[in-house]
Amino acid sequence: MSATGAIFEGRCLSSNAEAVDAYYSKAAPVLVPGSTSYLNQFVKDAGVWYQKSYSIDGSGTQTLRYSIAAPSITFDSCDMTEPFFDGLSVGWMIAAAMVAAAAVMFMRRGL
């Protein structure tokens, strides 16, 4: 049984939607300074990501220039259960090493 997730920055996240959220959340706003400055940023509104652009005049008043849906992104898939089974394998190796060490100790006592 495997649960499919999405890879973002080397991490396996639980879904493509979670990876999209991580991607757009990391995108820094871009400010273009000038007599009229422009601010571009990604904003999540009602579960949908939008790219919004604002103009900022000399007095600091922000005016929305446009708001468009952000591009849809698909990330590579990954197996969410793989880290669990990797940890399980390591755990069994440690348990086997402990049993082997105990067996060696008991054998030494018997001699």
Entry summary:
This protein has helices at residues 16-26, 82-110; strands at 4-8, 11-13, 30-32, 37-45, 48-56, 62-69, 77-79.
Account of the protein in words:
The protein is of the alpha+beta class and 111 residues long. The protein has two helices and seven strands; from the N terminus they run ββαβββββα. It has helices spanning 16-26, 82-110, and strands spanning 4-8, 11-13, 30-32, 37-45, 48-56, 62-69, 77-79. The strands form two sheets. The protein has a four-stranded antiparallel beta sheet. The relative contact order is 0.17. The model has no long low-confidence stretch (mean pLDDT 89). The chain crosses the membrane at residues 89-107. Keywords: Membrane, Transmembrane, Transmembrane helix.
For this entry, give a set of tags.
alpha+beta; transmembrane; three-stranded antiparallel sheet; elongated; four-stranded antiparallel sheet; 111 residues; 2 helices
Mean pLDDT: 89
Largest sheet, in brief, is: 4 strands, antiparallel
- List the uncertain runs: none
Structural class: alpha+beta
Tell me the helix content. 25-40%
Number of beta strands? 7
Order of helices and strands: EEHEEEEEH
Strand order of the largest sheet: 3-4-5-6
- Our count of helices gives 2
Cα-based radius of gyration, to the nearest Å = 26 Å
Alpha-carbon distance between the termini? Answer: 48 Å
Large-scale geometry: elongated
Transmembrane segments: 89-107
Keywords: Membrane, Transmembrane, Transmembrane helix
